[in-house]
Design a protein that fits this description.
The complex is a heterodimer of chains A (about 900) and B (about 180).
Chain A (H helix, E strand, L loop, with lengths): L1 H7 L3 H7 L4 E4 L4 E4 L1 H6 L9 H4 E5 L5 H6 L5 E5 L5 E9 L4 E8 L4 H6 L12 H52 L3 H16 L3 E6 L5 E5 L6 H12 L9 E3 L5 E4 L8 H7 L4 E9 L2 E10 L6 H69 L4 H31 L8 E4 H18 L3 E6 L6 E4 L1 H18 L4 E11 L3 E10 L21 H7 L5 H11 L3 E7 L3 E12 L6 H7 L8 E5 L3 H13 L3 E5 L2 H8 L6 E5 L1 E2 L2 E2 H15 L6 E5 L6 H8 L3 E4 L4 H13 L31 H4 L8 H13 L6 H26 L2 H17 L3 H15 L10 H19 L1 H13 L9
Parallel strand pairs in A: 14-16, 20-21, 20-22, 22-25, 25-26
Antiparallel strand pairs in A: 1-2, 1-6, 3-4, 4-5, 5-6, 7-8, 7-12, 9-10, 10-11, 11-12, 13-15, 15-19, 16-17, 17-19, 18-19, 23-24
Chain B lengths: L2 H15 L1 H11 L14 H15 L3 H21 L1 H5 L4 H18 L7 E8 L2 E7 L6 H14 L4 E7 L8 E7 L4
Antiparallel strand pairs in B: 1-2, 2-4, 3-4
Helix pairs in contact in B: 1-2, 1-3, 1-4, 2-3, 4-7
Chain lengths: ~900, ~180
């Protein structure tokens, strides 16, 4: 061995340093020399041992000493038997010793092998590239590790990004749901479903502190029997929240179930049922905790903090939502109460007006009647005083009514031609006596440029004038009152009319000048005591002037007097003579009229009867709607005065029925004048729409009533009165005609009288369709007729026997009208036949009429059968349900 | 700077103070890297800024942080980054330290773009040596001190380190005398 080393010129130490893994052996394969590192790698390899005990020669394939001697530049590979370590290197043959030196290094493919073989880097020669290779391998492994980490981090980020996106989407959806929801009950289920999308917990509940109930939501697809059972128990069992123990989390509003501290309660039970993870998200409102959303799960959520924060956001929004819905509800309730109060006030005013006007009507009417009789001077004076007091009272009631109309926005100003000069003069004339009595100088100055006829609201202008002049008179003890009207502007279609009322009265202190226009206010309390009044006059005037497009202002000096002035816009009129004036002034005293008065109040009946009879008219009074219809259709009256409120219906319906009757029969339309104490907005329009010709408010002024009657009746005597030709086109029936071949079905035919024709039913169906907008009125009329049929026929039969043919004539005429109205043509024809027979009486006397009477009886019987049939009831139900609401009073 | 060094700072802050504090430190340092690749080279300024903001946010002196980072680097980061090779770098403190020069020479050969420090060992006895630390970077001596402490802990061997020469004294490098207890 020494010789080998000597030959190389290296010391043994140097060989060991340069080739720490070397191995020397002789031709007998006996080990001669072992490097220090090889001894570490393959313990037991010792000098003198046989090579094959420890190594397998893999290359060269011959594995013989000779083969290795012959190829000194070949790669030689040994494998250590014990650790299976591969050694690779080259052999050098020393001929003198006939020995081989295998200079090798272990072949390693990972740093882990280094450790496994019990080696360190210090075991390798510095020149051995294996150490470098190991470092490269390590760098590669390290880089691979980095890449894996990066990929895993990216995946986690991506996952979290998606989860955050889903949470945001759920939060957005919840915000949307809360945006359109009206109450927690509306939104609870939807919100919980979204929360499940956030938390992925199988069971969620929502409870409110003041509702004593919970809404639960089970995750779709996760609805295991256990989850359903838990949801059932959480929602059905009465909640006892006191036992639950929740621990705070880092997230405000979010609390976590504290299993360690809980010994009972719902959450404890849920944990025992297999849902140990629970969170509570408190819903807080402005006033404190309102309730909570709770989530029950089986496993801990990943990314707990983000989930809790999102859910806390949901809880926050729920709290805001509940606060908002409660505030809205409170606001709605307040508005409702306020609206109810306003409605009650309007209703009260309307009722009071009716209640007050009715007795005033009685008082003024009776006074009027008494004054028209013979009276002593004292009595006359007393009655006139009573009348003026009544009128004053009426004025006060009117003030209150006007005010309520203005407040409700129901007052509208008229726009019709009127004589403005005459209007001013009338107001002036009204106060002349009072001015004279108070010894005041009273002047009316009218601008010569002011035209006579303008377009506007004469009544309201008059009202303002009378009010202002009345105030001036009232508050002026001495001096003068001056009314001045002038033309301020003259535009293409409009004029500006300025009116000033100046007095030398007590004046108004500056501090009170605004207050005098406020409702129920007078300048001083003492004023009210001294001068009376409602304090509404100026408020109403100011509003009326505003409605006429102007403004009412005041200039005043205490002790010196006041000037109230206003400018209103009025329309220009081409022709000089206004229609209304011509009608009123050109009216002539009429002939005596036969007037039907429909009025249920006995006092009013007496007043109206008195007024009409005083003027030479004859009067028939009825007090029910049915009677009003039946008498109104008789065609014997020149005019009808129709009260609007009747015990069994209203005058509008009666008017409607009478108009329908006229149209059907082509008879003359009798003038109908509405008469009511209901002086509230819209009444007049409804009355006219129902078919009335005019509408008067009680208490009725005798002159007004007379003028209206003159206008409506004198202008067109009965013979020339317009006939109703505007029969409405018959529309298709709303129901299919029953029966075969156009005839009545067998169910209708059975039991009908011989003269009852299937055509009656067809005609009735036509009427139902034609008057569909009158609701069930046609059916009511049919029932009424059927109910009265027996009595009517009995009376006809009786009167025929008695020979009272005029009465019979009236009865059958009425019956024909009624039957015709509702399309029962058989009854109508039978009635007309009897009527004709009466007009042209047979020589044989009343007995000859028996055939017609019997025919009428048969058709009436048929009518009763039809009205009593199921078919009629079904038809009525069908038509009533098909009729549009609110059209029953349409004209 | 070797990515693994920055990684050491990250790991230590995250383990001791949580990811949020690390994000705060990164934000304060104006560092936007999501993570550091071990064998990649990063601007030295990043390391200095990270140390600076960590010092400010954690309220710990920079040299103390660097020393801790050094220990952490050996015990956690390098162990993870070098795996078996770290342990194979030596059988004990002595052989490990004596291998340091070769190790860094190989690093320089493998990654020509890196500028690793140069270590020179000067044996004083079987259980002590003088370590010369040459670096183009200033101020990292406390980091080396931490590394040496970590190496002692790695082999469960108490070590005594004394910095016997500093750049502050006008030398061109830092000098440490390291002595250890020989394994029984």
């Amino acid at each position: 061995m020494t010789a080998v080393v000597a030959d190389l010129g290296l010391t043994a130490y140097e060989v060991a340093v340069v080739f720490p893994f070397h191995l020397g052996f002789d031709s007998g394969m006996r080990i001669l020399q072992v490097g220090p590192a090889l001894g570490k790698l393959a313990p037991g390899v010792e000098v003198g041992r046989q090579l094959e005990e420890h190594f397998v020669i893999e290359t060269p394939a011959a594995a013989t000493f000779a083969a290795m001697c012959e190829a000194p530049s070949s790669l030689v590979v040994f494998r250590a038997r014990r650790r299976n370590t591969v050694l690779r290197g080259q052999t050098i043959w020393y001929p003198r010793q006939n020995a081989l030196l295998f200079l090798c290094s272990p072949w390693l493919t990972s740093t882990a092998e280094l450790q496994r073989h019990g080696l360190s880097l210090a075991d390798f020669a510095v020149h051995d590239p294996m150490a470098d290779l190991l470092q490269v391998l390590q760098a590669q492994e390290s880089t691979l590790l980095d890449v894996r980490k990066l990929v895993s981090k990216l995946s986690a980020q991506r996952k979290e990004q998606r989860a955050a996106g889903a949470r945001m989407a759920a939060l957005y959806e919840i915000t949307r749901i809360l945006g359109v929801g009206a109450s927690v009950a509306d939104v609870a289920q939807q919100v919980l479903e979204q929360c499940i999308g956030i938390l992925h917990f199988p069971v969620l509940t929502l409870w409110l502190a003041d509702a004593n109930e919970q809404v639960a939501c089970i995750a779709p697809g996760a609805g295991s029997a256990e989850a359903r059972e838990l949801a059932r128990r959480l929602t059905e069992d009465p909640p006892d929240f006191a036992l639950d123990v929740w621990a705070p989390t880092e997230t405000p509003l979010a609390r976590r179930y504290d299993a360690a501290a809980s010994a009972g309660g719902r959450t404890h039970d849920a944990a025992n049922a297999g849902f140990p993870v629970a969170y509570q998200f408190q819903i807080e409102g402005a006033g404190g905790v309102l309730g909570a959303v709770e989530a029950y799960g089986t496993v801990e959520p990943s990314n707990e903090r983000a989930l809790l924060e999102t859910m806390a956001e949901v809880a926050l929004r729920l709290g805001q939502f509940i606060d908002k819905t409660r505030a809205d509800a409170a606001l709605r309730s307040t508005i409702k109460v306020a609206a109810a109060a306003a409605a009650a006030k309007s209703q009260f005013l309307a009722r009071m007006s009716h209640e007050i006007r009715t007795p005033i009507n009685g008082v003024l009417g009776m006074i009027e009647l008494a004054l028209s009789g013979a009276l002593g001077e004292t009595q006359r004076t007393q009655l006139e005083t009573a009348r003026s007091s009544g009128e004053l009272l009426l004025g006060l009631v009117n003030d209150v009514l006007d005010f309520s109309k203005i407040e409700a926005g129901h007052l509208e100003v008229d726009d019709a031609p009127f004589d403005v000069r005459a209007c001013l003069q009338r107001a002036y004339k009204l106060f002349e006596p009072r001015a004279a009595a108070k010894r005041l100088r009273f002047e009316l100055v009218i601008d010569p440029a002011l035209p006579s006829v303008v377009c506007g609201d004469e009544l309201r202008l008059s009202q303002v004038l009378v009010n202002l002049i009345g105030n001036a008179m009232k508050f002026t003890k001495a001096g003068a009152v001056r009314v001045e009207a002038s033309l301020l502007g003259d535009a293409e279609s409009e004029l500006s009319l300025a009116v000033a009322v100046t007095d030398t009265g007590i004046g108004i202190p500056e501090s009170r000048r605004d207050a005098i226009f406020a409702a129920f206010t007078q300048a001083e309390l003492a004023t009210a005591r001294e001068f009376g009044g409602t304090g509404l006059g100026l408020t109403i005037c100011k509003q009326l002037v505003a409605l006429m497009g102007g403004e009412l202002t005041v200039v005043s000096e205490v002790g010196e007097g006041s000037t109230f002035q206003f400018v209103v816009r009025v329309g220009k009129v081409a022709q000089e003579a206004p229609r209304r004036v011509a009608q009123q002034e050109g009216a002539v005293v009429g002939r005596p009229l036969h007037v039907l008065v429909v009025e249920d109040n006995e006092i009013n009946q007496a007043v109206v009867r008195g007024l009409l009879e005083r003027d030479g008219h004859t009067v028939e009074i009825v007090d029910r709607m049915e009677a009003a219809i039946s008498r109104g259709c008789a065609g014997i009256f020149d005019a009808i005065l129709m009260d609007v409120q009747l015990p069994d219906g209203d005058g509008l319906m009666a008017t409607n029925a009478i108009r329908v009757h006229s149209r059907l029969h082509g008879t003359a339309e009798v003038p109908i004048i509405g008469l009511s104490a209901q002086a509230v907005a819209g009444d007049r329009e409804r009355a006219l729409a129902a078919g009335m010709d005019d509408y008067l408010t009680k208490p009725v002024r005798p002159a007004q009533l007379a003028a209206t009657l003159r206008q409506l009746c004198v202008v067109a005597p009965p013979s020339q009165r317009r006939r109703s030709t505007s029969l409405r086109a018959v529309r298709e029936p709303v129901v299919e005609p029953r029966g075969q071949g156009g005839g009545a079905g067998p169910d209708l035919g059975v039991g009908l009288g011989a003269s009852w024709s299937p055509a009656d039913e067809q005609a009735f169906l036509g009427k139902v369709a034609e008057y569909a907008d009158l609701g069930d009125m046609i059916f009511t009329m049919a029932r009424t007729l059927a109910t009265e049929a027996t009595a009517r026929w009995q009376e006809i039969e009786h009167k025929v026997e008695q020979g009272e043919l005029a009465r019979v004539g009236f009865l059958v005429h009425s019956l024909a009208g009624s039957a015709g109205t509702i399309g029962f043509s058989s009854v109508e024809k039978a009635s007309r036949a009897l009527e004709r027979a009466l007009r042209d009486p047979p020589s044989g006397g009343p007995g000859e009429l028996a055939a017609e009477v019997e025919a009428l009886r048969a058709t009436l019987f048929g009518l009763q059968q039809f009205v009593g049939s199921q078919a009629f009831t079904a038809l009525e139900a069908q038509a009533t349900s098909a009729a549009p609401a609110g059209t029953s009073s349409a004209g | 700077m070797y990515g693994l060094v920055n990684r050491a700072i990250e790991q230590m802050v995250c383990q001791g103070h949580g990811e949020e504090v690390w994000e705060d430190i990164k934000n304060a340092a104006g560092v936007e890297e999501q993570m550091f690749i071990s064998s990649d080279s990063y601007d030295d300024a990043i390391t200095y800024r990270l140390v600076g903001s960590a010092s400010a946010i954690l309220g710990v002196h920079a040299s103390e942080i660097l020393e801790k980072f050094g220990r952490h680097w050996i015990l956690k980061t390098a162990k993870e980054g070098y795996g078996e090779l770290l342990r194979a770098a030596g059988d004990d403190v002595g052989s490990f330290l004596r291998n340091l020069p070769n190790f860094h020479t190989r690093v320089k050969l493998l990654y020509p773009h890196l500028t690793p420090p140069v270590f020179v060992c000067e044996d004083l006895s079987e259980s002590s040596l003088r370590l010369h630390y040459h670096s183009t970077r200033a101020g990292l001596a406390p980091f080396v001190r931490g590394l040496l402490l970590g190496i002692g802990e790695l082999f469960a061997t108490p070590v005594v380190i004394e910095q016997t020469g500093t750049r502050d004294q006008g030398l061109d490098h830092d000098v440490f005398t390291v002595s250890w207890t020989r394994a029984a």
